[in-house]
Amino acid sequence: MTVMGGNGLFGYIRIHKDELKIKDYNLFKAYYCGVCQTIKKEYGFPARYFLSYDAAFLALMLSSVSPEPVTVKPIRCLANPLIRRPAAEKDAILSYAASVNVLLVWFKIIDDWKDNHSLRSLFLMPFMVGKRNKARKRFPELYKKMEASLGELSVLEKAGCDIPDQVAGVFGQLMEDIFDTDLIQTEEKRRILSRCGYLLGRFIYILDAWADKDEDEQKKAYNPFLASGGQDAGTLRLSLEYTLGELANNIVLLNVTKNKDIIDNVIYLGLEKSLENVFSGSKNKVKEKQHERPI
């Protein structure tokens, strides 16, 4: 596996649409489209191609504890110009989420190049380097922390680290740094958000490593579960269930009212569904839906 996930960015943070009220689904779409529009305004139209649900969820979470209201207005989009779509108007949180999305894409490209000399990555590097520079200039401390975490993760993977929790912990630190932003001025809420980021990162890395282990074995690529000699699936699933439980407990501590139903849907249903798909052998069902443009 690669340090940024084997396919797409992550692909496991999703809503469970069937269980959302229409108003909440429309609001999630508004965040998604709002991040998309912000990327277009700040980093150029083509950069929107790399938009992920992960960035939309980050914006949703940060907005949920921000006292600033979110303004939603209808827009027209090239994806479907005949229908007006709800979009959150650009603000500091959407701008931050857009920058994080750009940086994650950049590190994914670099990771793919280092991992297998991907021609696609070689092609994308000149296209993304200017956008990377702009995001790094806006959030230099975040960039340094992300670079350090991913560098440490790369070293562990190249060394064949056989302790899955160790490599997952480093990725958790990356996500913790992303969720810890001075846009949220309440110290307690920042601390809880940071912990949520860590738990989410641990969950994502371990779930993706488990999902990719057979493919990595065929490719003779690094995977912490191959390096460790394997693990009991039932024990690992219980560990991930525990991580989701702790994540849910921390969400409760945030005491949010804004966006609560959407956040609960992602935590209790979306992530649980991703977990079920992987452990039931339906990995491809998850992966094939990772092109996240049409929401």
Order of helices and strands: HHEEHHHHHHHHH
In one word, what is the shape? globular
Walk across the major sheet and give the strand order.
1-2
Q: Tell me the name of the CATH homologous superfamily.
A: Farnesyl Diphosphate Synthase
Total count of strands = 2
User: What's the domain count?
Assistant: 1
Task: Compute the CA-based radius of gyration.
Answer: 18 Å
Task: State the share of residues found in helices, binned by percent.
Answer: 55-70%
Q: Tell me what the CATH architecture is.
A: Orthogonal Bundle
CATH class call: Mainly Alpha
Low-confidence stretches: 287-294
Report the β-strand fraction as a percent range: 5-15%
Topology of this structure?
Blueprint: H1 22-43, H2 53-64, E1 72-77, E2 80-88, H3 92-116, H4 119-138, H5 140-158, H6 164-179, H7 187-219, H8 224-227, H9 233-254, H10 260-279, H11 283-287
Antiparallel strand pairs: 1-2
Helix pairs in contact: 1-2, 1-3, 2-3, 3-4, 4-5, 5-6, 6-7, 7-9, 9-10
Q: How would you explain this protein's 3D organization?
A:
- The chain is mainly alpha-helical and 295 residues long.
- It has a single domain, classed as Farnesyl Diphosphate Synthase.
- 67% of the residues lie in helices and 5% in strands.
- It contains 11 helices and 2 strands, in the order ααββααααααααα.
- The chain has a two-stranded antiparallel sheet with strand order 1-2.
- A hairpin with a 2-residue loop joins strand 1 and strand 2.
- Helix 2 packs antiparallel against helix 3, helix 3 runs antiparallel to helix 4 and helix 5 packs antiparallel against helix 6.
- The radius of gyration is 18 Å and the shape is globular.
- The relative contact order is 0.15.
- The C terminus is likely disordered.
